[in-house]
User: Fold these one by one.
Assistant:
Number 1:
Amino acid sequence: MEIEIADYHNTRHRAGIVKLMAAYALDPMGGGEALPESVLTRLCDALAAESGAVSLLVFDDDDAVGLLTALRGFSTFKCQPLLNIHDVMVLPEHRGQGLSVKMIAVLEAYARKSGFCKLTLEVLANNVRAQRVYQHCGFAPYELDPSQGAATFWQKVLN
C-alpha cells in the first residue's frame, strides 16, 4: 500500500478520487445516495481551484482504495491556519488494515511541516468505528470550557 498526495490534474489521481467519492456517497456513513455525475465530473477541477485543498490517496498497486480530503480553515484563537478533514474513506474490502490511521499520520506530518496549528474534523454520532480511529489518532471533541460542553457541528443548506 502506498499513500500519495493527490495531484488534481493527474489522470490516475483524478480517477481514484472520483471512484472513491462515488463509493463513499453510497455508504450509509456518506449519506447513502449517489453523487450527481455533474459533481463527480467537476470535483477534481474544483478541488484544484481551492488553494487550501489537499487529498491523500491510498493505492494497492494501481487500485485506489482509500481517500482523505482536507480543506484549509483559520483559527481566530490561534491566529493561524488549520486543516479540516472533510472526507475519510476506505473501501470496505480494505478496512481493518489501519489505512485511515496512516492517512491521518501523513496529513499530520504535512500540516506540521506547512505551519498549520491543528487538524479538525466532523464525525457522525453513530459512526463509532470512525470515532475510535480518530481517538486513536489523538482527536477529541472540541470544547473551550468543559462546563460548557462539547461543540456540535451544524449546517444550513443554501442550495
Number 2:
Amino acid sequence: MDAEAGLAAAAQLFKVLGNESRLLLLRLIGEEPRTVGALTAATGLSQPLVSQHLRTLRQGGLVAAGRSGKEVTYRLADRHVFHVVADALAHVQEPVLEPEADD
C-alpha cells in the first residue's frame, strides 16, 4: 500500500469512527464480545440503530461477528481498534494547554 492509499484508508477509518454511538459500541465490544441485545441494553439505543451501526463497523473492518445458533456475538476485529478509541478518549480528557505567547 503506497502512502496515498494509506491516507485514503485512514481517512475512511476516521469517517467510520466519527460517530459517538459507534465509538460507544466499540468501547463496549472492546471490553467483551456482546450481542445486539446486550448492546441495546447497555446503550439505550434502539435495536435497529445498534444493528445499523454494527453493519457500518463491520463494513469498515472494525468488528467481526460470530454466530452461535440464533445469537450473533460481535467482537473487535483487532486490538488496534480498541487502542485508537482509548487514545482518542485520553486525548480529549487532557487539559488544554494555552500556546506560549511570543515576546
